[in-house]
Amino acid sequence: GSRVLLWGRVLQMVSEAKNLVPYSGPNKMRDCFCTINLDQEEVFRTQVVEKSLSPFFGEEFYFEIPRTFQCLSFYIYDKSVLQRDLRIGKVAIKKEDLCKYTSKETWFLLQPVDSNSEVQGKVHLELKLNELITDNGSVCQQLVECHGLPLVNGQNCDPYATVSLMGPSRNDQKKTKVKKKTITFNIVFYNCLVIFRYLLQPRENGNKSSKTDDLGSLRLNVCYTEDYVLPSEYYASLRNLLLKSPDVQPVSASAAYILGEVCRDKYDAVLPLVRLLLHHQKIVPFVTAVAELDLKDTQEVNTIFRGNTLATRCLDEMMKIVGKHYLKVTLKPVLDEICESPKPCEIDPIKLKEGDNVEVHKENLRYYVDKVFNTIVQSSISCPTLMCDVFYSLRHLAAKRFPNDPHVQYSAVSSFVFLRFFAVAVVSPHTFHLRPHHPDAQTSRTLTLISKTIQTLGSWGSLSKSKLSSFKETFMCEFFKMFQEEKFTEAVQKVLTIEMYKRAQGRTRIGKKNFKKRWFCLTSRELTYHKQREPIYNIPIKNILTVEKLEESAFNRKNMFQVIYGEKPLYIQANNCVEASEWIEALCRVSRCNQKRLSVYHPSAFLNGNWLCCKATTENTKGCTPCTAGVPADIQIEIDGDRETERIYSLFAINMPKLQKMEEACGSIAVYQGPQKELDDYSNFTIEDSVATFQTLQQIIAIVEKLNEPHEKYRKKRSSSAKYGSE
């Protein structure tokens, strides 16, 4: 219970390079990209900037560090088509120096890259002395243990070790055998001198021949944070306070909302907050509450959910986490086709090259847009339940806020589904891990054109009116006219509801002979059946335990399946085998993430006091056959709730002056019926209920001050016991 875990996170902006070494020939420009490496393991790569010696990258990367490391390194490469990419230079920041540069834009001189400087790992030398060391040397045994050696091009390296012996009468050097494909090995030496444990370092003369001032510079903004996670019981008070946030009235007085108010960059607050609320199944009510607050300040329909508020940021982050698998199964196949076998799609007259056929390019682009668009609209059944639940709430909130606009329920969702989710993933597939690297310039341009069209199609369908004015370029207006058909509007509105409507003539069992004709309707929230228009029975999707075929012998009827959702199953007969299969697949997809899905079931019915399949005489007997529905397993999101709470504690601790300032503002409003200081002091805070907000602030401050004590105790213990080079 006393263990403290250390976690690291990095948020970094690779901005630009300048004064890179030119080619020696007449064409001095280079095609450059930058990689981000943990030691020598590449974790990210920027786009290629063509024909420049001062390339601007302007890309931001966030990642959590899953292991120990020595250096965070940045390599500038010159892209080569026929040969291996050339490394121009690097910036390597030691782990212990990262804090010096955190949240500061800094220009770093590029350092040369050579085999002597590319060193990492640790070596452990253990010496057992058998006798005193004399001038002639003495015999002893020494074990060399190495680990943490680098990967070379993603593969284990072929290491060996040398040991130099220096004495008054002789100098000697011994070399081990090469160990193939490993990052850890043990070697035995004889006639050795010392005992020590140390980090491997470059040779002193490794880069004497290189001139560092000739290689150029790289501008970076690195934010590195370390979290010391205490045992879970320390966070109980803060965790409980945060998890109550969706129920606080007004929500602006909640701890979660206040976190977003006091953090300079809302992204700092959003990431741990969303992950914590997801972990405890509180994200839907919280996003609903803050979205309702946003709508109070929205005066026009066309600006609905368009700002970077706490609500939109939380939903963006939730979609990235929850929708990761959804994007992969939906977009990855078509993006792989576009990136691996690209067709020319440039339709801008200014950018066309001599000999290009713009009509062919339009057809190529139309083919890609159709394929991406159809993939999206056909994927609604695969949309994660959490996203469906949030979108369902947004639709109803928007309709309530603007009751006279019949299309607002679609525009409320379109800004997220198309603009902030699918379109962003299309234009930057590497960011969502849909592609290993940033696409080349031509493919990137194609993806940009596809993304623009998809965004406008989403807006078109949601607002049911022409959006040609949204294009600044005339050539895009002309291209978009190819999509002015009613079927696109209908398809977009269908996916914006994130519901799958399907009518089928089904029959429900009340008794063996009592099969009745009913209309069935399946949405992402419920399965209902109808006698006419109004539903007469509904099953919430979250209650479905499994969906399986039913043996024909049960009722002597073909094409039957069963929906098991409680004590008794619902038996349904479809019109044909294809329809039955489609219903089983659809029901399995919408219920695939239900937590209590069954692993076994009864393939037949319970009639006349026994199960026809296994002859068991008790109706609630556990199933006798493994479930066979071929659906993805529940997609688990790995979240450490304590770690996220620790991060939130750190943010509150760092922003304690703002918490106190906000507390002062609440007191001023409560006592004097309004702020008595200049607007600049308080205007950035949202305070709807000064009394409720004041009470929450007092709780936050007290909890943070209490948590400060074990953190300070641990820091003192760590600083007094830690020595450089020790374990």
TrEMBL record:
Keywords: GTPase activation, Metal-binding, Repeat, Zinc, Zinc-finger. Residues 493-592 form the PH domain. Residues 265-459 form the Ras-GAP domain. Coiled coil: none annotated. It comes from the Eukaryota. One of its GO terms (biological process) is intracellular signal transduction. SUPFAM superfamilies: C2 domain (Calcium/lipid-binding domain, CaLB), GTPase activation domain, GAP, PH domain-like. Residues 1-108, 119-251 form the C2 domain. CDD domains: C2A_RasA2_RasA3 (cd08401), RasGAP_RASA2 (cd05394). GO terms for molecular function: GTPase activator activity; zinc ion binding. This is RAS p21 protein activator 2. It comes from Chrysemys picta bellii (Western painted turtle). The gene is RASA2.
